[in-house]
Write a structure and sequence with these properties.
Layout lengths: L12 E5 L2 E2 L3 E16 L10 E15 L4 H7 L4 E3 L6 E3 L11 E7 L9 E9 L14 E8 L11 E3 L4
Antiparallel strand pairs: 1-2, 1-7, 3-4, 4-9, 5-6, 7-8, 8-9, 8-10
């Protein structure tokens, strides 16, 4: 198949998690797919693998979020709770260890595209890593969030983590 300029893409995306629009991003959104394999080696061929077995796939999505809103913070900090008050809202953080984290649907929709043909869906994503909330004079107050795809056993083998391109 010859090259096609229509396949060259540029632009940002809208990111939603657990049906909540996470707002503007700064620096884009990055999807990393890592396939892990177990190599089999035998003495006769030294360190050259003679066979390989698929061990699993890991998908991570990193986004630097620009909108500092409590409704967003409670989505991206595990165990955070939004307490809406009559005069002021607050977010409380901190729960006991050992509590299962339920994954939620993470959607990436290219802003410049009509329809869902280029969307990415992670069926069960959780937030991993640390959340840094910088308060400094230089630059915008942004915070990076890393999502990890969990296996969704309700899906068929070959489609356990995510899908790229959603049919209308």
């Amino acid at each position: 198949m010859p090259p096609n300029l229509r396949n060259v893409r540029l632009g940002q995306c809208v990111i939603t998690y657990n049906s909540v629009d996470l707002g503007y991003t700064n620096g884009g959104v990055e999807v990393t797919i890592k396939n892990d394999a177990q190599e089999v080696m035998i003495d006769e061929y030294g360190t050259a693998p003679v066979k390989s077995y698929h061990k699993g796939t890991r998908i991570e999505v990193k986004a630097k979020l620009s909108e500092y809103a409590y409704t967003t913070l409670v989505q991206v900090i595990n165990g955070a709770v939004l307490n809406e008050g009559s005069t002021v809202d607050e977010v409380t953080i901190g729960q006991k260890g050992g509590i299962a984290i339920d994954g939620a649907l993470l959607k990436l929709h290219p802003s410049q595209v009509t329809g869902t043909a280029q969307d990415v869906e992670i069926y069960k994503a959780i937030v991993i890593g640390e959340s840094k909330l910088p308060f400094k004079l230089e630059g915008e107050t942004t915070y990076e969030v890393t999502f990890l795809a969990l296996v969704d056993e309700t899906k068929a083998d070959g489609s356990l983590l995510a899908r790229f391109g959603i049919a209308a």
